[in-house]
Specification:
Mean pLDDT: 91
Number of helices: 12
Strand order of the largest sheet: 17-15-10-20-21
Shape: globular
Strand content: 15-25%
Distance between the termini: 28 Å
Radius of gyration: 21 Å
Largest sheet: 5 strands, mixed
CATH architecture of the largest domain: 3-Layer(bba) Sandwich
CATH topology of the largest domain: FAD/NAD(P)-binding domain
Low-confidence stretches: 383-406
Number of domains: 3
CATH superfamily of the largest domain: FAD/NAD(P)-binding domain
Number of strands: 21
CATH class of the largest domain: Alpha Beta
């Protein structure tokens, strides 16, 4: 198990509960993952007037005819059970006065169905509890402060990982839960480590990537100097009545429209006015509902009770990733992916708010079960000799690197600025072709995927192809190890 965010911890716990021995590799100490900072909640149909079918409809609408419906059906049907299982593990979700889950409303949802824990501190609350459960589980060995340098392959299968200290860990099933890639962009809500390392590990081992042109830009990230720039202001605040105001003090968008619409409306306002931010007005919102957000903003020198919050879009969530089936299997046998590093097709071209945390747990449970069914490794792997990845010849275990058998070059600020400039909220062919020459391999791959999609759809907006091409409905851009892009239709 590689990664100790919500998806990684829960998958490890589910596998251990089923009797599997699990080694959990985490680059940081437990409870320091990207999931820890998640302000949103878990989307699940609990309300009397709600249903999985209604949740499914909202997901399909938000995804702009790119959602894999079978994945969305799994998510919406199994999300309530996942929330209940987390509660059974000890996660204390927010409750209303009648003893039921207190349900919030977010953009794109037609009903209140967002389950929170600790208000806007859901990620922190869930990760702290799952970290504690994992630490106490005798069948889970936790390796903190360790990184995976490469995936091991033999006979066309993934057979384990090589760590940065040279150790080889062999296993019938390897699950990547390494998070997303939003920190590749220069303006982001994500911590610095969210740069898609897991995607490169999988790609270097021969796995297919899909939909990586689809980066969701969160509409309301604080505009400030230094470390406060990019602070996320949760969408739930708009669900409780906060308004977006332009430089003239006027509302200009339905604040609860899907994120791609709101982000693009803000982008347009900024272009017209020349301003660096619009104002988020939460002066009429009960501050008791979001105490940690209020504290964070005040620590940043913004008093939301009296002043507007300067906000603008920022890279937030990678909707594409390592292509998987509905049981988290990648295209390489023995290799699984869950959470933001994966791509089941659930999110399409625009993620419905708070579906991502639910995805971690619904597909984490499925990954754990499917991993238990993997065949035992053949004898002889422990001697340290395996086949290398596709087109790399044979070699000692661990030679499969991020790409072409080597670790990717460090991410530079120049690459981050180039990605924001050429593959931000608005793209065009000339900029994307320039970006294909970027020295960072994942930046170049994102450009290749975005260049292939000659249309505008959801989070992917091409100024040279401003209309949606119906011929590309439900067609996913996939990338294999020869860097060629192929459109695929998924059942």
């Amino acid at each position: 198990m590689v990664g100790a965010g919500g998806a990684g911890l829960y998958t490890a716990i589910r596998a251990a509960r089923a009797g599997a021995q699990v080694t959990l590799v985490s680059a940081t100490e437990l409870a320091q993952s990207s999931s820890y900072w998640a302000q949103g909640g878990l989307a699940a149909a609990f309300a009397e007037a709600d249903s999985p079918a209604r949740h499914l409809e909202d997901t399909l609408i938000a995804g702009r005819d790119l959602v894999r419906e079978s994945a969305a059906r799994v998510l919406t049907a199994e999300a309530p059970a996942a929330v209940n299982d987390l509660a059974a593990l000890g996660v204390e979700f927010d409750m209303d006065t009648t003893g039921h889950f207190a349900l919030g409303l977010e953009g794109g949802h037609s009903a209140r169905r967002i389950v929170h824990a600790g208000g806007a501190a859901t990620g922190r609350t869930v990760i702290q509890k799952l970290s504690a459960v994992a630490a106490q589980e005798q069948l889970i060995e936790i390796l903190e402060g360790r990184r995976v340098l490469s995936l091991l392959t033999a006979d066309g299968r993934c057979t384990g990982v090589m760590l940065d200290d040279g150790r080889l860990l062999h296993a019938p099933a390897t699950v990547l839960a390494t998070g997303g890639a939003a920190a590749l962009w220069s303006r982001t809500t994500n911590p610095a480590g969210a740069t898609g390392g897991g995607l490169l590990l999988a790609y270097g081992a021969g796995a297919t990537l899909a939909d990586i042109e689809m980066m969701q830009f969160h509409p309301t990230a604080v505009v400030a100097t230094g470390l406060n720039d990019g602070l996320l202001v949760t969408e739930a605040i708009r669900g409780e009545g906060a308004c977006l105001l332009n430089h003239a003090g006027q509302r200009f968008v339905d604040e609860l429209a899907p994120r791609d619409e709101v982000a693009r409306a803000i982008f347009g306002e900024l272009a017209r006015s020349g301003s660096s931010a619009v104002g988020l007005d939460m002066r009429e919102v009960d501050p008791a509902l979001f105490p940690n957000v209020i504290t964070t903003l005040r620590d940043a020198g913004i008093d939301p009770a009296h002043t507007l919050i300067p906000v603008a879009p920022a890279a937030h969530y990678m909707m594409g990733g390592i292509e998987t089936d509905l049981h988290a299997r990648s295209t390489v046998p023995g290799l699984f992916a869950v959470g933001e590093c994966s791509c089941t097709g659930l999110h399409g071209a625009n993620r419905l708010a708070s579906n991502s945390l639910s995805e971690c747990f619904v597909f984490g449970a499925r990954a754990a079960q499917a991993a238990l069914d993997e065949p035992a490794l053949r004898a002889g792997l422990e001697d340290g000799t395996v086949a290398a990845g596709p087109d790399q010849g044979a070699g000692p275990a661990g030679e499969v690197g991020g790409l072409d058998g080597a670790a990717p070059p460090p991410l530079t600020e120049s690459s981050r600025q180039a990605l924001w400039r050429h593959a931000g909220l608005e793209r065009d062919g000339a900029g994307l072709r320039e970006l294909q020459g970027d020295p960072h391999p994942l930046v170049a791959l994102i450009a290749t995927a975005a260049l292939a999609r000659e249309e505008s759809r959801g989070a992917h907006w091409r100024s040279d192809f401003p209309l949606r091409d119906q011929a590309l409905d439900h067609q996913h851009v996939t990338l294999v190890t020869d860097r060629k892009s192929i459109f695929q239709h998924w059942a």
